[in-house]
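Q: What does the assembled structure look like for these inputs?
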Amino acid sequence: MTIPIVPKLLRSHLSDLAERDARIDGRGRWEGRELEVEHSILPRAEGSARVRMGDTIVLAGVKFQIMTPYPDRPNQGGLMCSAEVRPVAGRNWESGPPSPESIELGRVVDRGIRESGCIDVDSLCIIPGEKAWQVILDLFAISDDGNLFDAFALAGIAALRNATVPAERFEVGEDYPLSVSKTPIMCSYHKVGGRFVFDATAREELGGDERIHITLGDDNNVHSLQKGLKGIFSAGEFTEIMDNAIERTEKLRKIIDEL
Amino acid sequence: MGGYGDVQMIDENGVRADGRGPGDIRPITIETGVVPVADGSCRMTWGTNEAIVAVYGPMEAHPRKIQRQDRAVLDVAYNMAPFSTTDRMRPGFNRRSREVSKVTQDALESVVLLELYPRSKIRVSIEIVSAEAGTRCVGLTAASVALADAGIPMTDLVVSVASGKINDVVVCDLNKEEDNYGEADLPMGIMPNSGELVFLQMDGDLSQDEFKQAWKYNMDAAQEIHKLMVEALNGGDSQ
Amino acid sequence: MNGGPVARLDNMTKKKGAAGPQGNKRGENLVVPGDDLGDSEGFEAGHGVLVMSGRLKALKQGKLREKGKSISIEPIHTRYIPRPGDLVIGFIEGCTNNLWFIELGAPFNAILPMSLGPGKVDFGGTRSVMDIGDAVLCRVQEVEETHSSVVTMKGMGLRKIRSGVVEEIDPHLLGRIIGKGGETLRRMKTETECRIVVADNGRMWIDGELDGILDVRNRLSAISRDSRGGRN
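A:
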């Protein structure tokens, strides 16, 4: 990724706005952009979703493969998450090997989903010691206007929740829905103009500082945390964000449940 | 290719397995402006193919060594998303994608007026999110729409379509099964106003007469698809 | 996918026979690359139009414009191409000991030599005067053949922008923002009590109290919304 220049005027303007409790696009501090979630939109994937948050658009696809279980875990299948931000998504995304930014994206989203235990790898066994399912979640950015983290995480869980195990195609039985026991939801907060805001746009990310990603499960249990970029924050700031995350993840979880 | 003569894909009345006649194209939709952050973009569905193309530029050409003093550099990349095929495609370098990127770039360079923007770069990203035979044709066609959407000057749009032969019958616009089990595949990239070609490949076995028929099918299909591209670009006002 | 309207070919039967080139398009308003615009005899090719074999050909997608003898196309998206005399707002992307690289939103960056910079600058002192990320209001001095341009800060009102905001605006909205005889822009300035400079490269500098700046931004959003007739 090419790091774009940060216009100095932007930073001071964001500071002025923060003092006024305002944001550059007129939203409230904890307000998200217009959200659209659709599932089962990719004909070749066993599960899929498209998420649109403002001008940020991403796709998630679930594919299944058969794997040989590890000798020490003969009844377990696997879950793999991979994220790609290709040049299609923005001027600053370059071709070539995955950048540190896109690797961080993939790994943070992966942890949120994996650590929640929403996919029980023991249930993915086909023949103990011989065959098991490997669930592969591919996250794909189409348009980057900021906060790819939340867009990926939401698309990922929406795709998994609507995935079908393709047992017929692999001749190991009948197709059945993938069992997903929880709905982990990620919320990302970016320090803009000196305070944390929810769902930052690309412009806010450009003029902002550090970010924090929180993934909560159905019972508000914390499943993953990540602090990214340069900057420091206080315990008080963190508590404020966590309180908002509890509220926000509940709303987003409802949207996924009702898909 | 390699014909599998025993797979029946077209019956005695000329009706194909998916209900089409020999000269019929699969259903197509075209939209522009689908990647809001890009300078131009296009989403095209063709049968169960789906391509999303974004264009950025003209912009500063980085790194300096790729800059050309006399014209813009057209940087075209064709890629298939991991979930685009029945068996997952591993992300990363892929020889086929590299070849398709190159022939698509060569085709587009034949119509884009690159000399108008020396020392700069125009980036075309073709992403196939769902694949079903003829992906290089969807990619090239959608790319020309995205370039027009971005305001890049071109001498014509490019329509790309592939005809071939199944069970000894020449047909237009091969679908997945027909491409896998048919006897020939002839993809072309056509400038619809002049009928000139910017892209041509072929593999299989066609007699001279069969070749002429497949060629004509592509030319006719290009005119029809062109109308759709115009409608998508002009926002439905061109009627 | 929420872009423009969708063009569909849903029916699988197609009409027999090739349709050929569409003939003279000048009667209609919207054109796409490749469209034939009629005989070139007596006409001039303007922006986005080429003369080829005695015919006028459209090179871009947009509205067809006939102004006297000149046939041109007004596209929705244009990249800014620098011309001498243009007033521009740029961002400093880099510098050497004796010049700055200015990003103008053009196909490539412009150069601001030390000698044309603000006040007196010593060799090697460029960065202390204007740093990466600073915004400048300057004028295009010259454009050489390869579209590389030189900008200058020597001139009335040209300066490093120290306060306010710089907004990117869609070039095709410029007309509406300025208004007839400059009326809309004038009214915006007085009613918001902001200083507003509209540059030729699709950027605006807005300076004033925060409330005024937010007011201007709202008005610009409204203009943008009103102009959208089905296209993003």
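The mean pLDDT of chain B is 93.
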